[in-house]
C-alpha cells in the first residue's frame, strides 16, 4: 500500500483531512515557541511489546508538512518491537515535528494495536487449517489503514467493501424471500467471477445454502455442536466461515472444528492501541530558513 501511486490516490487525502482536523488555521502552541525554522530531531520509542504497523503512514504525515524531513527507520512493519526500543529517528523542521506529532502517532498507535491483537490470534490458530479474516467493522475513513494493519499482524483481509464480493446476510435473504431465491438472483445479477457467500444461523439454513449452490457458507453465532454438524452437512461442497463474537478468548473453542475461515470484527473494532511516543526532541543546527 505504500507505493507512490497508492499513497496519492488513497492515503494522502485522508491524512490531510486528519491534519486539518487537528490544525484548523494554525498550531498556536508551536508557533508561539518556534516562530522560525529550526532543524531538529526526535526519537520514536515503543513503550510496550507488540507488532508495529503503519510506519509509512507515520512518515507520510510529516512529509506532507515538511518535504525536507528524513527518517532513520530501525524497524519494519510486521516486526515485533519491545518496550523501550528505539523504532526511528526523525529529522526535520521542528515546527512540523511538533504539529504532526499527534496525528502521526494516532495512526501508528492504532495500526500497531490492530497488528498486535491480530498476531495474538494468528498464533492461536497456528497448526490448524483455519485462516483468520477481518470484517467491515472498521472506523469510518480508517478502513484502508486498519485492514493493512490486519495483514501486517499476519491476518487476512475479507472483502474490502460492498463492491468486492457477494455476501448475502440475514436481511438480504429476508428481502429476497429466502436463501434459494437470494442465491439465484445474485447469480443472475453478478459476473461469473463473483463468488457467493451466504450467512446462515441454523442447520436448516445450512442445508438450503448448500442446495442453492453457495460458494462460501458463513456459520453465524452458532453453537459449537451446531457448527460441527454444519461442517459435516456441507461436506466440502462449500468453503466454511465461522463468525460471531470471535475474540482471542473464544478462538480456542473452535480450533477442533476444521473450519476454513474465521472472521473477527474484534480485530478492528476492539484492539487497544500500542503505546508509542515521540521523545527527546532537540535542535541539531542553527541554519536559518532560506
Helix content: 40-55%
What is the number of helices? 10
What structural class do helix, strand and pairing data support? alpha/beta
Number of domains: 2
**Secondary-structure element series:** HHEEHEEEHEHEHHEHEHEEHE
The first-level CATH class name of the largest domain = Alpha Beta
Parts with pLDDT < 50 across at least 5 consecutive residues: none
The CATH architecture name of the largest domain reads Alpha-Beta Barrel
Ends distance: 35 Å
Which shape, going by the Cα principal axes? elongated
* Beta-strand content: 15-25%
Major sheet attributes = 6 strands, parallel
- Radius of gyration using CA atoms only: 23 Å
* Name given to the CATH homologous superfamily of the largest domain: Aldolase class I
The largest sheet has its strands arranged as 6-11-10-9-8-7
Q: Mean pLDDT, nearest integer?
A: 95
Instruction: Tell me the number of strands.
Output: 12
**CATH topology label of the largest domain:** TIM Barrel
Amino acid at each position: 500500500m505504500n507505493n507512490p501511486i497508492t499513497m496519492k490516490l488513497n492515503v494522502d487525502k485522508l491524512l490531510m483531512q486528519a491534519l486539518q482536523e487537528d490544525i484548523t488555521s494554525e498550531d498556536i502552541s508551536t508557533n508561539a515557541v518556534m516562530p522560525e525554522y529550526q532543524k531538529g530531531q526526535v526519537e520514536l520509542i515503543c513503550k510496550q511489546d507488540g507488532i508495529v504497523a503503519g510506519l509509512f503512514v507515520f512518515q507520510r504525515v510529516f512529509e506532507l508538512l515538511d518535504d525536507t524531513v528524513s527518517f532513520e527507520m530501525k524497524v519494519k512493519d510486521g516486526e515485533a518491537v519491545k518496550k523501550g526500543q528505539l523504532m526511528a529517528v526523525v529529522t526535520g523542521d521542528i515546527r512540523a515535528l511538533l504539529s504532526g506529532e499527534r496525528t502521526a502517532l494516532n495512526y501508528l498507535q492504532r495500526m500497531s494495536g490492530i497488528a498486535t491483537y491480530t498476531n495474538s490470534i494468528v498464533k492461536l490458530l497456528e497448526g490448524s487449517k483455519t485462516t483468520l479474516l477481518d470484517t467491515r467493522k472498521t472506523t469510518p475513513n480508517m478502513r484502508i489503514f486498519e485492514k493493512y494493519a490486519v495483514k501486517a499482524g499476519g491476518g487476512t483481509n475479507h472483502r474490502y467493501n460492498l463492491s468486492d464480493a457477494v455476501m448475502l446476510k440475514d436481511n438480504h435473504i429476508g428481502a429476497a424471500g429466502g436463501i434459494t431465491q437470494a442465491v439465484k438472483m445474485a447469480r443472475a445479477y453478478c459476473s461469473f467471477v463473483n463468488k457467493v457467500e451466504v450467512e446462515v444461523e441454523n442447520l436448516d439454513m445450512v442445508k438450503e445454502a448448500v442446495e442453492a449452490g453457495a460458494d462460501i457458507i458463513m456459520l453465524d453465532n452458532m453453537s459449537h455442536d451446531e457448527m460441527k454438524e454444519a461442517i459435516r452437512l456441507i461436506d466440502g461442497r462449500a468453503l466454511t466461515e465461522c463468525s460471531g463474537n470471535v475474540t482471542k478468548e473464544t478462538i480456542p473453542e473452535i480450533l477442533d472444528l476444521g473450519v476454513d475461515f474465521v472472521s473477527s470484527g474484534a480485530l478492528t473494532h476492539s484492539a487497544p492501541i500500542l503505546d508509542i511516543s515521540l521523545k527527546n526532541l532537540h535542535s541539531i543546527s542553527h541554519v536559518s530558513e532560506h
